Fold this sequence. Notes:
There is one protein chain. The protein is of the alpha/beta class. It is about 40% helix and about 15% strand. The chain is built from nine helices and eight strands. It has helices at about 20-30, 45-55, 75-80, 105-120, 135-140, 160-165, 185-190, 220-230, 235-250; strands at about 5, 30-35, 55-60, 90-95, 125-130, 150, 170-175, 195-200. An eight-stranded parallel beta sheet has the order 1-2-3-4-5-6-7-8, sandwiched between helices. Strand 6, helix 6 and strand 7 (about 170-175) form a beta-alpha-beta unit. The two termini are about 15 Å apart.
Amino acid sequence: MDVIDTHCHLDLAVFDSDRQQILDNCSRLGVSGIIVPAIEAAGWPQLLRLCSQHEMLRPALGLHPVFIHKHGIEDIDLLDQHLDNKNIIAVGEIGLDFYIENTDKEKQTDFFDMQLSIAEKHKLPVILHVRKAHDEVLALIKTKNIVGGSCHAFNGSLEQAKRYIDYGFKLGFGGTLTLPNARKIHELAKNIALEAILLETDAPDMSGYQHKGQRNQPDFIIDALNALAQIKNLPAEEVATRTTLNARQLFRL
Length: 253
């Protein structure tokens, strides 16, 4: 099988001791690609260096809304300059997170809007992080001419899912598919067309049922694949082929 993990923070220090071992295991399992989205500008050099060393890894650069307090306006200009690097496949991880208490919603919105404009300028897809803000994100996307993207760890409504898909987005599902009580996620995955779904791990976060309490990692993507195949009542090979094609088309891999 050929599988792509469309969201994995493999650049983080938690993987420094066994990163190569994980990549070797991914290759054995049929994981052919891993998209590594950025969190903050300080981490961009390490992320780009790592991706340049491993053909399997593909970089995305952006400013994560959870860490809005770490971002300065100079990072926006730096992002614009970095995107002249043709190896960068997307702008991300960007978005809005209104789940966080006492967050600066205005600054989040301003930075998200500016990053959408940069993605529009460079004709790159975006990788979205959204919590408790799907309607606000969709409203901003509507004002731009974005070439599409992924809505990572999608947990909105089916109606919101259809709106994202209408704007050229695909929806990311991962370890939560394996959780027996994740009924909302199971129902969403069942009702969203396979042509609009991407597989992801969000490693090192969001471990699934088989690895509860452990560090998540990209080779666990196979658990999400098998869970999605069961929910869809389809062969795992068919789900792998379609979701991988979705990723290749969206990110031009």
